[in-house]
Write a structure and sequence with these properties.
heterodimer, A: 112 residues, mainly beta, 6-stranded mixed beta sheet, 4-stranded antiparallel beta sheet, globular, B: 112 residues, 7-stranded mixed beta sheet, 11 strands, 54% strand
């Protein structure tokens, strides 16, 4: 079945540092890929998405590129802020179905 | 446009009781999905409803059930509660593209 693997956290960074959170996937079809963010005590917020190979999703300074050859969708940000501290989830939706398969989440802690 | 709303936000129940959670999707969204989030198992798909019909179901026991009304609002019910049902229950409504999901704030259920 489908699966998503994320790097374990927490990832601890200083403000303005470069962020990478790794995500790889296994899917039988041609999935769409998503990054969601969860702040403490809240639900999930859609951060960005990509629907086909070589697509780049971007939002609020975050970027991720759909790499079919490496089955990856790594999240990057050039300069993190304290307000980016949250848990980040990578997810896939296979062949247009509205069922998301999530990774286990990566906690990001940014210190001033 | 209003987001996904879930009620109640917090619930405390005792073992053996049953509980009903409610979700109102974003206006115009016809598909509603439910997920369970726990520290141990992460985010797991429960079921999806579209036009009042269950379209997809995750691997949960029959104690977990749901329904959708003609106005797309959805409810999920858990009967004979167990301690392990303590979790954050998230509802998501699906955009017209059929795969992008927007989440509500969740209902946090504690079973004592």
């Amino acid at each position: 079945g489908d699966s998503v693997t994320q790097m374990e956290g927490p990832v601890t960074l200083s403000e303005e540092a470069f962020l990478t959170i790794n995500c790889t996937y296994t899917a039988t079809g041609y999935p769409s890929l998503f990054w969601y963010v969860q702040y403490p005590g809240e639900g999930l917020q859609l951060l960005l998405k990509a629907t086909k190979a070589d697509d780049k999703g971007s939002n609020k300074g975050f970027e991720a590129t759909y790499r079919k050859e490496t089955t990856s969708f790594h999240l990057e940000k050039g300069s993190v802020q304290v307000s980016d501290s949250a848990v980040y989830f990578c997810a896939l939706s296979d062949q247009g179905y509205s069922t998301l398969t999530f990774g286990k989440g990566t906690m990001l802690l940014v210190s001033p | 446009k209003a987001g996904v709303t879930q009620t109640p936000r917090y619930l405390i129940k005792t073992r053996g009781q049953q509980v009903t959670l409610s979700c109102s999707p974003i206006s115009g969204h016809r598909s509603v999905s439910w997920y369970q989030q726990t520290p141990g198992q992460g985010l797991q798909f429960l079921f999806e409803y579209f036009s009042e019909t269950q379209r997809n179901k995750g691997n949960f026991p029959g104690r977990f059930s749901g329904r959708q009304f003609s106005n797309s609002r959805s409810e999920m019910n858990v009967s004979t509660l167990e301690l392990g049902d303590s979790a954050l229950y998230l509802c998501a409504s699906t955009y017209m593209d059929g795969e992008t999901q927007y989440f509500g704030p969740g209902t946090r259920l504690l079973v004592l």
